[in-house]
């Protein structure tokens, strides 16, 4: 198969690399409510995301972006269809399995940063490793490495309230990478940032793909940020309407 083609069963193939895709979604459906008032957030969405790429998810408000990311991250369950992440069918997992998946193999970045106010930058980054009971020395080394990676090596002791919005999001990115996830899910990570800071955060995510070997799926409404992606998925009214390469000239 080649990039931008359609495979068996109508699945859009967003590139292909050895070892199988990082994400495979097949005929995914999710509705909220019932009867005439039901909202069909996703209607038969199918695609694949290869390993080691940054894929952007675009679409207007209400197109289904957040619903899709929640399903990929095991935060919600579909009404029908399958979701495979790093070779694991996550729809069939129980709560314990989903918890382990989110802890060990998926990192999350949110628009609201989600940092713990009373903890320093270093302590925030270390939280996932504490939950995983990582050896303290290994944890400290990993925290220092990640803060250096995101350009905040000199801000380890500062609390979120002492950092700018862009710096807080960089801490959030470092925290998301703490347990060496295979997949990084970012829902509008630049939504609270000014244009220049948003571009810097996307440049950082691009660098993370290269340095950490992680696959990144990022939802954004900002067309200026699409040029950082290897591939763009576009949702419209709960359906995948485009799965081509990133736009030229962005």
UniProtKB/TrEMBL annotation:
Annotated spans, Disordered: 1-20
Fetch the InterPro entries from UniProt: AAA+_ATPase, ABC_transporter-like_ATP-bd, ABC_transporter-like_CS, ABC_transpr_LolD-like, MacB-like_ATP-bd, P-loop_NTPase
The record places domain ABC transporter at 23-250
> From which source organism is this entry?
Streptomyces xanthochromogenes
Keyword Flavoprotein on this protein?
no
As one GO molecular function, the record gives:
ATP binding
Q: Does the keyword Signal apply?
A: no
Q: Which UniProt keywords apply?
A: ATP-binding, Nucleotide-binding, Transport
The name of this protein is: ABC transporter ATP-binding protein
Residue ranges with Gly residues bias: 1-12
